[in-house]
Amino acid sequence: MRAIVVASSHLLLASFTALCVNAFTATAAETAALKIPNSQLEPLAFADLSGWAEDDHMAAFKTFAESCKAILPRRNPGREAGVMFTALQNICKLTKNYDASDKAKARAFFEDNFQPVRIATLGEAAGFLTGYYEPIVDGSPNWTQEFWVPVYRKPSNLIPIGRRRAGESFPNKGTVGRKFGRKKLVPYYDRGEIEDGALTGRNLEICYLKNPTDLLFIQIQGSARIRMPEGSIVRINYDAHNGYPYVPVGRPLIEMGAIPREEMSMERIRKWMEENPDGAKEVRRKNKSYVFFRQPQISSSEEPKGAQGVSLTPGRSIAVDKGLHVYGTPFFIEAELPIESGQPTTLFRRLMVGQDTGSAIVGPARADLYWGAGQEAGLVAGRIRHPGRFSILIPNGVDLTTPVASEVPLPPERPEFIVTNSHSTPLPRPRPKVEAAAQ
Length: 439
Description:
Blueprint: H1 4-30, E1 39-43, H2 57-71, H3 83-95, H4 103-113, E2 114-121, E3 127-134, E4 136-140, E5 149-152, E6 158-160, E7 176-180, E8 184-187, H5 191-195, E9 205-209, H6 212-221, E10 223-227, E11 233-241, H7 250-256, H8 266-275, H9 277-286, E12 291-294, E13 317-319, E14 330-337, E15 346-356, E16 366-373, H10 375-383, E17 385-395, E18 417-419, E19 424-426
């Protein structure tokens, strides 16, 4: 016969579970708590941010307002629906009629609507910064002996596997398959197979470049301006990838001893590849990841659009981990960077806005700084691999606290005995811990 107290225990457990659910629901309704996994958060005052008062807040306001063009129309943001997105959307409504005609007013906008919070990965004191830019390279609409490296658009048999975010056309990382037959999916061609001609004859070519190093760098950056022989400009932007994880091209060069780690830069990589074409082919293929492009409807002079769908601002836009942060979030970054020279002596104290992402941008305090288009921007971007201090600007009203243990209901007392109609049986009790004797 089933024990009476066992049945009672189930009732008590159900009641306890209901209490916990109700307490959690009530807490969530009363306070909007921000949770960023694997991060440590430290609330600050704006006065604690080194260089905050000297920054150009008008430029930052314009960049934030650009993000608002994508935030305000969203009605079904999917997994982005949460405290951060909703709070940013409410602040974006204020930008429509806000007078940010001077630095003081623009600064007041951020100070009145946000609170700065230092953010870092758990156990780390600082974040990490890199740079990116938009290359400008020569190309041709047709294959020639000089222009022979194809730039491919997304193949029709390229299928992303798994869930996508609302409004996302193609994820920038994750599992990707290739249709094989009617139902079977197999891994897509890797970089080596594509370079060997796996996609030849599919009519996927957007244009042709002079060498594979140009294509590799464009794939790393995610966009480019291709200058045609007659002077016209063809714009290309990231559209899809082949499903393989990105391997930094500098890694094998360091392992080979070709370039010392402390001297690593895109400029050094390009120089080595030009001097070692056979070795360059081998190094490229260690990165099996391959990017496909599309032609965006933008002018030849307009800045490229980031993953948020708005035009990037040189020196103000950053790529962030979209799994942790909402596009449009402002970050104040403090660092010493190699901008004016190859040495990290330039004080960088600037309010940036998360408007883009990348497969290598992972972590709560990780950012890629966008520097613009062309050779000069490329030189600066290619030198940056440095630590930085991140402060995320959290909208007012977003709570950084979580329920403390004293607010969580305690479980009912554990019964001492199981009682049946005929007898009672003592329940086993946990043995008390015996502390080891002090040495």
